[in-house]
Design goal:
Shape of chain A: globular
Number of helices of chain A: 11
Radius of gyration of chain A: 19 Å
CATH architecture of the largest domain in chain A: 3-Layer(aba) Sandwich
Distance between the termini of chain A: 6 Å
CATH class of the largest domain in chain A: Alpha Beta
Number of domains of chain A: 2
CATH superfamily of the largest domain in chain A: Aspartate/ornithine carbamoyltransferase
Largest interface: A-B, 28 and 25 residues
Low-confidence stretches of chain A: none
Strand order of the largest sheet of chain A: 7-6-5-8-9
Oligomer: homotrimer
Largest sheet of chain A: 5 strands, parallel
Mean pLDDT of chain A: 94
Strand content of chain A: 5-15%
Helix content of chain A: 25-40%
Structural class of chain A: alpha/beta
Chain lengths: 304, 304, 304
């Protein structure tokens, strides 16, 4: 089975996820040996309608470690600035003539799907719109957990932060629902808690979850603390915000075999003092994005 | 005979055009076989004073398919922002120390010629100013016609749109005047018709032409429909604009062996319904830009 | 001895400078032979918080001539625009997972040092802040003099321009103080003369210097005329500014074996008429930046 495009996390079945994780692990070993030149004839186009240097660099580094070349734009809106009303679809059709894969970050939800529909070369979604998808982030999150724990069955996780508008945490919760005996604690000020659609999806798939607002109650229970940021303006009582920050004191409440993840960038929600703790895996998680993206590139080109 | 710089379409004689088209065809086959690494020691610098991601990507992909490397800037104006009054000439002399070819898009007519004058490495003009040149676009247009028709002698073509300020169509008309028995219909609202300088040039070279404002009168006559956009604000009676749009109905009036071209991007002047017609070659035309630019790079480096 | 990071010119001892110059010379010969593919598995990330296309291209070309690959951003501020308060340190830690060397241009003095502190891969300072360092510029200046003169001992140099805020000339004066019998003339309108801290450093190292405001008095004395620009708004009597311009007339006062250098870009301080004189070495100097940066890259990777 070949993966044609990577548009949304819903595409990924458990066997495909396991194939992806296995392949990502192989990519990790490949990079340790200096990468490969096997794909030196391939060109990636990164078409970013909004800037995201971190995500762009991760994709471009993945391409380079495979030996390939990169056409890069930080400001794809200039495509359309020349001519009002130019269509994404036309741009994709033209770029497909110049490249072997298009990594697109679009400013509207559904942008990647529109691109995939007309593209003769694989399209990979690098995030589309606030309410859209960012599947490769969710995949690298899951890979990081699987890599450390060897399994996702029976995982207990605290997902912390501004959850209602969190593209990443929504996708992560969705993907976790595919695995048995997962327990999810959503920890958040009540006004920005996880939205009903995801909760309903979890109920339908018989995933245990709890809504919490007190971080200290759950830290000792979980395998994974998945921390994200909270924009102060979204919370009624800003004085309570500090209680969601993971610091050295809260760290003591965590299990010794637990891990702290964060999609990055962070602001204040993880104290710098946490960085040196062996359970702090967020920079490792960012690096795993390289291996997962390398694995995705080889999957869309060569299949399983 | 070696081509030193590519500055304006006037440089191209008929034998040089034929050599270029022959070479472009070979590049097409080369890309189908995965490209080459023959030029892996070469560096291209793309110096774009105004953004044009499409053109830039086409040049950069051409370089990559030849095995080379690319120094890229989307916003070359930062060169001069540091220091008011910095000269293009100095920038070119510095860049020539870092690269083996400079692709320049300048915001003033004559910019490429100024660059070529001081550069010890080849300069290729990727468009300079509104009234300036964009020779590689005209060359890929001509290549597309030649590739399908095998010859340019006796060609009949309708050039449609806002013709007075159309850099592309002016260069195309100029190049067509080099071939025997060409017939050109300029189809346009009268207020934006082709300017007298080009018409005079055609007369001097005894090229048949006609000025038309009714697209339906010429569609059945021509081998090529070359469509371009019309900015609504340039036309007195905007209601008449719709009559210049090529749609499914007008398509029926075209000959079965004709082709539709467009320099892209388009807005409304070609209906999406036309895209699936086998005569719609504008995406193919964009892709041909890759092969023509590869051919130009090898010409400036290695000669004929 | 391995050079871990390149942060400030103070790091460079005389033996290390000699090793660097020797290596730069070898790089020059390597480029003449078409460069190398020895570093084709390496990735450079250029992280520019303020644009400087010239410096960026010089580093990226150096990487390409060594066979490597480049992750490039012209506008690294988008890293932090997503999230207010994001730290340079986090960005560096993430990028280090994607690359083998990070070239950073930061908008604050000390930025490169902060980056080096947390980076597991080498960091090279490409300029940090107005009052900060730009060590690779000073190194290429010195290399250019050494390359022509074979020695720095006994050098006499006129450093001309707006010297109090000149990052480049301050570093150059600092590095020159390491060599015996150097004579430095600082030539400048009095209100923008070299600051006391550098003068004091020269006195401590027993370097001969003189403060001058009349360029014609020193031109006949020196081996090197190091010209830089003066912003008109910094000078009380703008009419006197023209007297600091090096033109054909002043050139006649220079010794026949002298050389004119300039960090570029220039505005009016060197007349175009000077360009064709064999003593005008500023474009050669810019090109030397390529070789020095290649040498620095191999030094931070492989050591001496």
């Amino acid at each position: 089975m070949k993966l044609q495009h990577v548009v949304e996390s819903q595409q990924f079945t458990v066997p495909l996820l396991m194939e992806l994780f296995d392949r990502s692990r192989r990519m990790e070993r490949l990079v340790a040996r200096g990468g490969t030149h096997d794909y030196s004839n391939r060109i990636m186009a990164t078409l970013f309608y909004e800037p995201s240097t971190r995500t762009r660099f991760s994709f471009e580094a993945a391409m380079y470690r495979l030996g390939g070349k990169v056409l890069s734009t930080e400001q794809a809106k200039v495509f359309s600035s020349e001519v009002e009303g130019e269509q994404l679809e036309d741009t994709i059709r033209i770029l497909a003539g110049y490249s072997d894969v298009i990594v697109v970050r679009h400013n509207e939800a559904g942008g990647a799907k529109r691109a995939a529909k007309v593209s003769p070369v694989p399209v990979i979604n690098a995030g589309d719109g606030k309410g859209g998808q960012h599947p490769t982030q969710a995949l690298l999150d899951l890979y990081t957990i699987h890599r450390e724990r060897k399994s996702l069955e029976g995982l207990s996780i605290a997902i912390i932060g501004e959850l209602d508008e969190g593209r990443t945490v929504r996708s992560l919760a969705y993907l976790l629902s595919k695995f048995d005996r997962v327990k999810i604690y959503f920890v958040s000020p009540p006004e920005v808690q996880m939205k009903p659609d995801i909760l309903q999806h979890l109920e339908e798939h018989q995933v245990w979850y709890a809504l919490e607002s007190d971080i200290s109650k759950v830290l000792g229970e979980v395998d994974v603390v998945y921390q994200t940021r909270i924009r102060p303006e979204r919370v009624a009582d800003r004085k309570k915000l500090a209680s969601y920050t993971l610091d050295g004191r809260l760290l003591k409440a965590m299990r010794s075999d637990a891990m702290v993840l964060h999609p990055l960038p962070r602001t204040v929600e993880i104290d710098k003092a946490v960085d040196d703790d062996p359970r702090a895996l967020y920079f490792r998680q960012a690096k795993n994005g390289l291996f997962v993206r390398m694995a995705l590139l080889t999957l869309v080109w060569d299949g399983e």
